[in-house]
Amino acid sequence: MIIKNNGNSEGYIGKSGFTGEDRLTPELMLTLGRVSSPQLSPDGAHILYNVSYSSIEENRSCSNLFICDADGSSEQQLTKEGKSISNAVWSPDGQRIVFLQDGQIWSAPIRERHSGWKLGKKTRLSEIDGGIREFAISPDGSRIMYVKYVNSGLRKPSDLHNDLDKADAICTDDLMYRHWDHWVKEIPHTFISSFDAGKKSCICEESSEDILGPSEALFELPAEPFSGIEQLCWSPDGRFIAYSCKKLSGKAYAFSTDSEIYIFDTQTGNTVTIPMGGGYDTNPVWSPDGRTLCWVSMARNGYEADRQRLMAAETDLAKLAEAMEGGSTSEGGWLHGVREISEGFKYNVSGPVWDGNGTIWFNALAEGVQGIFKASRTTGNEWAIDRITGEELWYDFNSPFGILHEGDSTVLLTSWCSMNFPTELAAVTVRGEETDCRQLTNENTDLLSGLKAPAMEARHIRTTDGKDMLTWVIFPPEFDSSKTYPAIEICLGGPQGTLSQGWSFRWNYRLMAEQGYVVVLPNRRGTTAFGQEWTEQISGDYCGLNMQDYLCAARDIKSEPYIGKIAACGASYGGYSVYNLCGIHGDIFDAFVAHAGIFNQEHMYMTTEEMWFPNWDNGGVPEECSMTQDADGKWATGPAGDGETFGGVRQGGSPWSTRPAAVRHYANSPHKKVTEWHTPILVTHGGMDFRVPADQGMAAYNAAQLMGVPSRLLIFPEENHWILKPQNSLLWHREYFSWLDKWCK
């Protein structure tokens, strides 16, 4: 069924008028509103936010602006544009809305009238060739930083032979020539410009300055493929910009996660570094008084699932200005007390936000749900971390986007979701040790409240080595234990991730339950919400304990009298898990679905793009062998002939490594077990997937065919690791459920 959206402007996509269903269907799910990008007004009274709607018929989505009071009342749609609006923010004086549309920055005055809010005539503020990706306005409103793409240095045919201007090819002498879903012809850089929210064409390339400068032209700011403007932060006085950057390119970039925090002076153009070494340093955020900078840091280079620590340093901006004006690029004098303030906290800190009282609020996945935490100073320079939303609240909370102090209460304006509903804005009120949560928006409440919702339980399943594994189980609506139901066991991607209370428009567990399946979600070894030991066990042991965890969960649910046939389904590492289970499960599973899965580990190592990941996770680089650089910037790679250093880079996780863990890893690649395959399998993959290239899926499907196993292949030539376009997504869901129904019902 194709659902049409209500709309009245040319190209406008509005809220679905879909009615009449008593259960969630793929068609209905894909047309639900998607709430994002909330912004609290400067006076703390109103919230601006986006809602995106998709049209299956038009095969696209469109995002428009909404506004409500800070308590969720007086909700109103502000725009009904046919072209998406994004990155919308309040001007510092609260008089205008500044936003992106068609790759350029616009602004419009906003007024509150008796009949509601109204946006005035919009003014185009930028004239930037190639368009702008994101922006952030300085606190005083006089400057703006914006992200645009620049030439990456990857050579075109015309660079090699100027008479071949119509030839189409990529020529490179190094790695990182493709990333995620694109050939790296361009990379993001961040520029600064003067700014006037009401002045036409005030932002142009001639008056803009590249933060990185000519000598750093090959570096990304922000990092590809997912980092954004949140990796840069204005100082409260608007003079400095703290930013995260991995100042590497080519092979060095491909094997390293070593980003650092830098501070750029908009007046002198000088840059200083906060030297940390190790792995990722990201998300710098200044306190409102400018005296403290905090950020998120990983200790080990090359390990992208290392514990995310909360770091802080005292900053004297006056002394920093003096140092910059004197040409100094050292941290002496203006930087003090660099330290971790989350010692003893076993979870991953994410999205730190300051309030005006010097407290840092953040989110973290902890014991199966994503909660809000706070870090506050105690005596002296010590910090304490407290959990604000308890693990008994089965929701995933994001970090606050606004913090209000009302008497003895603190109100955290945030967003939340669960497996039962997509993201909505919410308020968490903290009063002493009491916490109250309340939903502010109800974008999808009317549609979802008319459906029969599934029930859910949390089980703790005993693993083969005696551990307790949190496993969510979702039951079909109107579940009756005297009846028999098919089951789906979900194999998580990552492998480092968590099956929490998140809502997904791609792998939606409520949707699966509402098609009549019991859905089993085991947080096997490698998941990130149960401490670092549980997370790290999976590295170098893909074929080991986590596979046994899956089998334990399957046996547990199959022991229930209401369970009939069962399928295992997963994407990415979950797809690898499916391919692996195909060869070892015996007769436990009745069907499989693998999306974007790793089938041949040897070939995967040589065709993926971010080399640091397989190099570590395939058994290669323990903590004592983390990649480091000497004073001359050369990689410390170990002696030649050590069995892991090749081509000037330590490759302990490679197919040619002699490390025992790596040897075991490749010996147990799923492709070496295909003669044991006998269970029907659906293989799906995106043709533009450069993380797990599509030939992995095609090879798995071909192997199934060669083994005589019932199998089906679904390739999406223009999709990446994720299936995103509305009609492609609907096709994927229809084939997914058709396959499972055929073999499990």
TrEMBL record:
Domain Peptidase S9 prolyl oligopeptidase catalytic stretches: 503-623, 664-744
Single GO MF descriptor: serine-type endopeptidase activity
GO biological process, one term: proteolysis
Entry keywords, A to Z: Hydrolase, Protease, Serine protease, Signal
Entries under SUPFAM superfamilies matching the protein: alpha/beta-Hydrolases, DPP6 N-terminal domain-like
Gene3D superfamilies xrefs: alpha/beta hydrolase, TolB, C-terminal domain
A Pfam short name: Peptidase_S9
Name of protein: S9 family peptidase
Organism: Candidatus Cryptobacteroides faecigallinarum
